[in-house]
Amino acid sequence: MLEIVTNLFNSNNRNMKALKKLVSEIEAKKPEMAEKSFEDFQNRTSEIKQMLSAQENRSFESDSVLLEQLLPETFAMIREAAGRIIGEFTFEEQLMVGIVLHQGGLAEQKTGEGKTHAAVHPTYLNALTGRGAHVVTVNDYLARRDAEWMGPIYHMMGLSVGVINSQNQSFIYEPPIEVSEAAFPLSEEYKNNTGTGKYLKEVTRREAYQCDITYGTNNEFGFDYLRDNMVQKFDQVVQTNALGEFGAHHFVIVDEADSILIDEARTPLIISAPAEESNELYQRLANIFKSLDKGNYDKEAKKVIDGDYAVDEKTKNGIISDIGWKKIAKSLGIEEDVLHSDPSRKFHAQRAADSYAYERDKDYVVKDGEVLIVDSFTGRLMPGRRYSEGLHQALEAKEGVAIQKESKTLATITFQNYFRLYQKLSGMSATIMTEAEEFFKIYELESIAIPTHRPVARVDHSDRIYKHQRAKWKAIVDEIEEINKIGQPILAGTTSVENNELLSNLLKRRSIKHELLNAKNHLREADIVAKAGQKGAVTIATNMAGRGTDIKLGQGVKELGGLHVIGTERHEARRIDNQLRGRSGRQGDPGSSRFFVALDDDLMRIFNGDKIAGLMTRFNLPEDMPIEANIVSKSIENSQKKVESYNFDIRKHLVEYDDVINKQREIIYERRRRLLRASDGDSTSQANIKQQLIDIMVNYARQLLTAAMANPETDIQEVVNELDAFLSLNASDKTSLKEIIDKIGATHDTESVISELVSFIEYRYEAQEKALGNDQMRQIERVILLSTIDYYWMEHIDALDELRYGVRLRAYGQRDPLVEFKNEAFRMFSELLAEIDYEVIHRLFKVKLAQPVPQTSEILDEAQTEHKQIGQFQVDRAEASSRSEETNTDEGHTHEPTVKSEEEKIGRNDPCWCGSGKKYKHCHYPELPA
Predict the structure, then answer these.
(1) Measured by CB atoms within 10 angstroms of the end CB, which terminus of the chain is less buried, N or C?
(2) Is 550 annotated as a binding residue?
């Protein structure tokens, strides 16, 4: 570990020297740029774009060489433009951040140092390629605000800006009249309106992506990628760029990179559809658990003490004792061995136990008859998100609210693998360096700490540590009351809604006026946080609510000591504490901070508190006496390191398994992309698909024939029947096939028989093509290929999920679960590809043309988006339909042909042909029945 830290320190010093050299080159161009007009800048933008596009054998590497050469000039141009437009010339430290971002690194720049401004330089430079530059923010408001705030700079440089928000809202920046050279610098009125959408025009999703620069949230970028790999036609793809490239992942800047790339990376993004209902069992188990006794969990013995069940607060799992299982079985009216042999009942019982590891008003709140998740890092409510794998349903049953349907995964990806799609990934945050090792190991990103523009004047006081929370809360209120008397503003950060409201009630008892900000009261978030620096203000906020909003000091506050930050307990991650502290002392302002800790706080109690509590008891220290000792401070730090290490292991574990799935995902998605390119009129892709289908038939027939010729006892008629079932032959063709197969016994020339069979298959394919027509044949091939790939891939995802849980047990047999998963997943994927190939041909030759009618995507209509375990984002049916309508209203659009089998047509609400007992629309639709 020491070696890693030393290497990082030395690397940072080397990088700083290189950065200062480039900054000097940029600064040297100031006089030249001051002489230029905006028209000169726009002309230069056009010249650079043309120079990049005119390259022979253009590639990402060749673009990179040119951009590196252009960096000093373009950064100097943006510096000058920003100074004129927003009245703020970029200072040296911001230029350093911009350089790090352009070079594909992570920059740590302290709170209030102007990261938004710094990001404009590399965004402009990389947008000149025409391949899209994406800027990722943590919420919709910041995406709109940053696009409107920096939009005038891009506009005056000749670039377009798009914004993607949730609820399928998409915009482009449309400058008002006041964005003109005569009106610069921008007025305070303009700046105050940024984030409201006043300067944005609503457009289609694709139009927003085809802008030179696109702002949006990490979830929306990720979900758009998954949706694009579920569409049925190329013109439904949204994630393109100005060059029309499919899946544009050229350059991205991730703001608050630690939050997005680390905190949220513990859980994958999922698009799902409603599955079968089992709500009755959830409610039944919830009622049973209300009658059970909750005990304690002995971590060392790994068993429940004095109860039927307990919870492991560290892993957030429920543990059911042997007695508990007996009681559950009895309440269900079944024998215990029957319960353990029934996966469904056992799963629902385990989920009911797990639900007690999640606390109301801490992990979730109940509002308007819904269970809403609280983001553990920001304290914000996450409406629409749902815990996965039955946990949310178990919570709904526990709380007695309506239980919503479970879901079936259609598509999934982790943030790690989504952001690694980008050819150049970069990011910035005020707290990067504590996670530098993880950034390098997972993303291969180098982290660089940028010095502040002015020295930090904040005073960080030592922690005050108490034996119990009761004494801690009294001390916190005492300090707030004392500081509030002199008018110094106070920001108190809490880790849960419950503690947030507890502190508020304590302050009310002493008649201390304050603003309360938590997941239940978030609508005025930006306004409350922005005013937290006014004289006499007392603000209580959960964790990092308001992140991204500046707290500006009011008149006379600097003389009082600036903003005083109080941390009511230590967070599980050190950088979250640093972020809270960083709200004070921005840009050289005075400020102060202090954390209060009790040894029965969750962090200490779960990870390290017993030893210290024993120490306090031994020395007989009073409850209300704070202690300041190195051993205690070290214990707190060790507790945080334990949690950070534990969470890193979770993320590492997730990405190791998802890397296996990712390789398979890339193969499947590339197949779909080839099909979509063919549907867009790409003749090469069409020819390739035709040849691929013929090859599938030939390979299958060759395998059958080779096996038959190798076995003298082969029944020739069985081979004929097998190929007949595969190719759906008419009587005449079946006779011709039998004549070829009969030659197996008459000749030992395998190749000649196979050659004759190949000719027959090609004839059969061409006959089907002639019957349907060339254009219709291509469209039908695409429909069948896409529906078959999507269905089998969806089933494969579920199978891999089950496998992932199943292989854990193999560790008891001294086998590495990850190696086992890789081997099994490879075998399953090989089988998947073979199944897809067989089903495609099997269905292709059963098709006959019906009346052409418009085709819609049932899957996307009913899809939901989900941030697994953290939750899911609902996608409204009307929104999904509206996107489909937007992309299908061009004049002259040719409707898709519908296809049906030779058997009787099945209605969407009829029982499925496969015998599953499900409705056809929820099972094999839009596949063709066999």
Answers:
(1) N
(2) yes
